[in-house]
């Protein structure tokens, strides 16, 4: 078995943007084609129902079908759905749905309806781990207000509740502390604009945003950085960073979808309450994307 078969969360897994039609209904045909296109262009897998996939504004039926569509398009081993929910029982149900659909792993935020304490976080991950599918934690203290600090991650891993963590705090120093406290816990790059720093620090994968628009260049960047080819990686990082930094902005979904439209993919509209970019934001994303295209990165 290959490394990614044993640990399917490793490599470049794209947090997929979700296409809607003119009436803002999920376009499952386009979504299936998008998942297949990403894998054809070098990505290792997809992450449906992450925040980039606007899972919060999907109905339960839509959310389940998105997972099934991704699995049908690229195979369950390449699909790691987000299973975040306000309640632990609901997150477990989504983990069970992913398991039954054939997915090899799931990604789970901590409790995010309130500022949960450590006991609540442990109980939450224990409940979802009971579904029997490997869990990748997702640390996003900016949005959830619950911080999976290295000491807590080590405890979750030590109890067998998580196998990896998507780290979105932006604090690259944590990579070294996590490696000290839980050396077998896989660190995954969680924010596009700290990719180089976390790859150098030993990250085993990237749950990525901008490959939705620029998969080949993004994969080349990750592979070079992970291999220690800093000459190649630094040049690509500098070229792509004006776009990658949008992944850490409030308007990241709109920005990535706009870049997709510019390079000839279907990004399209977002569901409310997301609104279109301001004119100056759109101009910045457009200019950075067009520079990337002109540099041959599309």
TrEMBL record:
Pfam families: DHDPS (PF00701)
Keyword field contains Lyase: yes
Residues that hold pyruvate according to the record: 207
Active site, per annotation: 138, 166
SUPFAM superfamilies: Aldolase
Assigned keywords, A-Z: Lyase
Protein name per its UniProtKB record: Dihydrodipicolinate synthase
Species of provenance: Streptomyces zinciresistens K42
């Amino acid at each position: 078995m290959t490394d990614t078969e044993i640990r399917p969360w490793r490599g470049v897994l794209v947090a997929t943007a979700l296409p809607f039609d003119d009436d803002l209904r999920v376009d499952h045909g386009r979504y299936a084609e998008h998942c297949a296109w990403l894998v054809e262009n070098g990505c290792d897998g997809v992450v449906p129902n992450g925040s980039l996939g606007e899972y919060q504004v999907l109905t339960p039926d839509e959310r389940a079908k998105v997972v099934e569509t991704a699995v049908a398009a690229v195979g369950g081993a390449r699909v790691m759905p987000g299973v975040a929910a306000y309640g632990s029982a609901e997150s477990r149900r989504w983990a069970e749905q992913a398991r039954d659909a054939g997915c090899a792993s799931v990604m789970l935020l901590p409790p995010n309806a309130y500022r949960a304490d450590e006991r609540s976080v442990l109980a939450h991950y224990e409940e979802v781990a009971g579904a029997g599918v490997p869990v990748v934690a997702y640390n996003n203290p900016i949005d959830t207000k619950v911080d999976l600090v290295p000491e807590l991650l080590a405890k979750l891993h030590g109890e067998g509740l998580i196998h990896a963590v998507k780290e979105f705090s932006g604090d690259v120093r944590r990579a070294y502390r996590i490696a000290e406290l839980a050396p077998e816990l896989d660190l995954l790059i969680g924010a596009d604009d700290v990719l180089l720093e976390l790859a150098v620090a030993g990250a085993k994968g990237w749950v990525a945003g901008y490959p939705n628009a620029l998969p080949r260049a993004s994969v080349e960047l990750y592979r070079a950085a992970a291999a220690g080819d800093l000459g190649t990686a630094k040049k690509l990082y500098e070229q792509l960073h004006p776009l990658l930094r949008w992944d850490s902005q409030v308007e990241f979904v709109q920005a990535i979808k706009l870049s997709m439209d510019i390079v000839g993919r279907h990004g399209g509209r977002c569901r409310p309450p997301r609104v279109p970019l301001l004119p100056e934001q759109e101009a910045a994303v457009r200019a950075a994307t067009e520079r990337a295209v002109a540099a041959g990165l599309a």
